[in-house]
Amino acid sequence: MASLSSDLNYDILRRLDGPSLASAACACVAFSSISKEERLWEDVCSSTWPSTNQEDVKRLITLIGGFKKFYADCFPLIVNKEVPEFRWNDYVEYVEEWTEAECYDDMYELEDLSPTDFVSIVDVRFKNKTIYSKVLWGIPNANGHHGWFSECPFRVDLLTHSAREEDHAGEVTLSESDGLPPVASIERERKDGKLWQELRNEVQLSWIVVNKKIKQAANLSSWIPLGGQRHWPTDKDFLIRFGSVLTAKEILPCQAVECILTMKFRMICSDGVTSVQTALKLTELSMQLGDMEGAHVNGRNSLLVLKESLSCRRSKNYSEALESCHLYSKVQSELMEEKMRNESRLERLYILSGIAAFITFCYYVL
């Protein structure tokens, strides 16, 4: 290795992907020194997330610490296994009834947050080919964290209304040329589900959130789908769900929330009767935060949760990240089951109380 020139070593390292480059940096002193070059990591970020090719995004990444740090922060997935196994009775009072002082120990932190501090860097791949990239500066329709945004359900929708209608400008479609299997008819697709399986197995999503003020970034997506649903809400729609479990300590009673990233495709028919063109149109790509009860988190709490998520634990092991999502789903299911049991007990109590009142009334009347 000592006989190789630095230019040759650089040429070797620039051909590697991110994990391989990080491993090569531990192999020898020469590789370790060259691997610190920002240009190498800029190329890695560009190939991994094409949306980082934009000049304004490059300046942002340089501002928050450089491409090497950006890759180290955003390539691993968020892992949160600290999901409290609380029960429905732990909800002593509704969050809406809490005062701000009870919800937040540090009000200065809330005042210091702004929707304009957050940047979303999103890339969608199908069979390792990028089909959609977008950078969203700030949170749309949020004029500060006061007013309606503070109390309304938090939602970030990357697709405009015009992209969903007949206007084809900027629409994202997948066809047989992209690797989709041919479909003879919708009825056939209902039976074998080849198109659905191909879509679910091959689509990937990266949703990176950057906070410019605190100079931190994290990937909120699970990269590959956590689940999905065929033909929802019609027989031509495919819904795929990505996401991660984020900490909400000292923000919400449930202590953890789910980042829900939803992607929806619609099948495009050639004539609507006999033959079906194998083409899918991306009609929705959105992010919301949901608590243990299944309710959407409001804008005020979402800003705090997003800020905390940028400094949480991460792992390059996908199975570990998936395990944290399954743990959250398990606790959420147990909570909802307990809620239903409590409601059932109350219903029986009301019925028995009504019967007892009726018998007492009849006894005194007769």
TrEMBL record:
SUPFAM superfamilies: F-box domain (SSF81383). It comes from the Eukaryota. This is F-box domain-containing protein.
